[in-house]
Write a structure and sequence with these properties.
The structure is a homodimer. The first copy, chain A, has a domain of 196 residues: Malate/L-lactate/L-sulpholactate dehydrogenase, NADPH binding domain (Ribosomal Protein S8, Chain: A, domain 1, 2-Layer Sandwich), CATH 3.30.1370. In chain A, 39% of the residues lie in helices and 18% in strands. Chain A is built from twelve helices and twelve strands. In chain A, helix 1 runs antiparallel to helix 2 and helix 1 crosses helix 12. The longest helix of chain A has 19 residues. Chain A is globular, with a radius of gyration of 20 Å. Chain A starts with 15 loop residues before the first strand and ends with a helix. At the A-B interface, strand 3, strand 4, strand 7, helix 8 and helix 10 of A face strand 3, strand 4, strand 7, helix 8 and helix 10 of B.
Chain lengths: 350, 350
């Protein structure tokens, strides 16, 4: 979701106002509480969107607040839900989000996931009954900053056709991965199983621009570069049948495996058509200290740095979250530019 | 590795002879033992290549035997290695393959992986110091046939350029996934992180055919459809930067995380230039019974069937291993056609 979508398209659409990160956090939290969210749910979401603004991922920053408010209009959505943690004897940790939102469910589950991984070497966190409209990099980055390998994926709403097919089945089904680094921020990617994020197509529509070829098909199953036809048709998985296989893997892990909805079922559940996916998130954490050869010290850090150097020694390359980390440096000191019309909407909530 | 490469290209290259699966197994085992492999190593490899012939995956069938023999010419390769299983208290199982081949190491490790997953919900198997020239679907299928979700990945030899770069860093780095089904064979895919398998480029070279666009770049970093220039240059990841992210994830999991070589290090280790990757394999097994909501029965099977039906109800779709399972039905009763020149080579080993 982040790469290619995060830092483009939104800021130049209107006049902007620069806010420091504390002001962004305060505005998000206040707006959500004024709209009936509990302070715990509102604060967790505010931390999440502020991190996105900090990193220049505008499509998951304050821009998301109206999506949260719309999702809360679903009859079964509980913007004051108290997530419940369930830890079994084994390596599987579960959080019942109680029809609330994912940021608070993660705050309730991530420590237990990390602790279990440190004890057993690997652990799985299943988050259930959750409205999830955030990006996935914050949770894998949180794990990687604590020395753990992180993996996360989630279903969304059926927008993407299977390989060879013409009708939407899969969500844009993002998958995120984090690996700790000995120096500096971790290796992190967070990418949709579709060629493009849904929001990128909506931005092309709003700006009256045709889509790049290969992003989508229309309702008749024909290739299209018309954003409106694409939204009425289906997005395509990235990389053809291989991306479709990954989209299916994500569906199976974050859906059936943990007793949760598929992207199609999530869409059917969204009777108000808010576009907010409801279902599950699947996470893994692995402790490299448990993965060293018996009797040897873990040397994953030094080995990984050799690999990153192999990539970065080539001109034209970069690691996935490089732009995000660069934006972070800048926005932490200078604040972030927020669209004036978005600010007007959010201030109207308060 | 299987999709797109398995069932094409080899059989029509010369006259063939049809052998039943027992004869294929016997020939593989006898040839390898005559070339100095222990009976345990030879039999495990024979089972692996026979399963590939049974499923029509010719590039991982008897065709691989000369690769095993070539790999055994490496000074550190031990074709009689006895893999050693190491189980810790937690969820991480390890196998030291002792510079032998992967099929026997898997036979030593998979039961322990499955048992640990059944006890704790999830388990990780790290296979180390292994020559790995087999496909990955057999191990995830083995897990899925036993009701477990399986994931496997491995590094190979540096053939693939990173996103934005021009020089090989990643291997073709396959990733395989298996999910149990209530009826019939499991959902299984096994796919390279590169657009094409290495062997497909070699086949184009042998047949004097140009490559499809987008598969490779030449040594100067320019797009090429010339197989020879591609082999001297670099293959491309599938789906651009997203496939490159997956290739890096595979490198990190099967390399640094478990204290093993990267694909570049594996290539440097291969002083005889046999093309046989040496390093690690990373596997996961998840028991769905541990992933159901507390107090509820696991319903992953029924939920997954709804998802598969959503895909298969569309004309033009199929699930990833469908061709392989169809070939299996056929070859189990009718035997499999093997290239006469390949048979001549193998009989020459005996």
């Amino acid at each position: 979701m982040v790469e290619g979508s995060g830092t483009t398209g939104l800021a130049h659409m209107s006049d902007t106002e620069t806010l420091d990160l504390e002001a962004i956090h305060a505005l998000a939290g206040t707006a959500l509480q004024a709209q009936g969210f509990s302070s715990a749910q509102a604060e967790a979401i505010a931390r999440n969107v502020t991190a996105a603004e900090r990193d220049g991922c505008l499509s998951h920053g304050l821009f998301r607040i109206p999506f949260y408010v719309a999702a809360a209009s679903n009859e079964d959505c509980d913007p004051s839900a108290v997530p419940r943690l369930h830890t079994a004897k084994g390596a599987v940790v579960q959080v019942d989000a109680g029809h609330g939102f994912c940021p608070l469910a993660l705050e309730v589950g991530l420590e237990a996931l990390a602790d279990t991984a440190r004890t057993l070497g690997i652990a799985l966190l299943a988050i259930r009954r959750v409205y999830n409209i955030a990006s996935l990099w914050p949770e894998v980055e949180w794990l990687a900053e604590r020395g753990l390998v992180g993996f996360a994926c989630t279903t969304s709403v059926a927008y993407v056709a299977p390989a060879g097919g013409t009708k939407p089945v899969f969500g844009t089904n993002p998958m995120a991965f984090g690996f700790p680094r000995t120096d500096g921020p971790p290796y992190v990617f967070d990418q949709a199983s579709s060629v493009s994020a849904r929001g990128e197509i909506q931005l092309h529509l709003r700006e009256g621009k045709p889509l790049p070829a290969g992003w989508a098909i229309d309702a008749a199953g024909q290739a299209t570069t018309d954003p409106e036809a694409a939204l009425a048709g289906a997005q395509l998985p990235f990389g053809g049948y291989k991306g479709a296989s990954l989209a299916m893997m994500v569906e199976l892990l974050a859906g059936p495996l943990i007793g949760e909805l598929s992207s199609r079922e999530s869409q059917a559940h969204d009777v108000n058509n808010t576009g907010a996916p409801f279902g599950g998130e699947f996470l893994l954490a692995i402790d490299p200290e448990h993965c060293a050869a018996p009797g040897q010290k873990a040397d994953h850090g030094a080995r990984a740095e050799r690999l990153f150097a192999d990539v970065l020694s080539q001109e034209g390359t970069r690691l996935p979250s490089a732009r995000r980390f660069a934006a972070r440096e800048r926005h932490q000191s200078e604040g972030a530019a927020v669209s004036a019309s978005l600010l007007e909407t959010l201030r109207g909530y308060c």
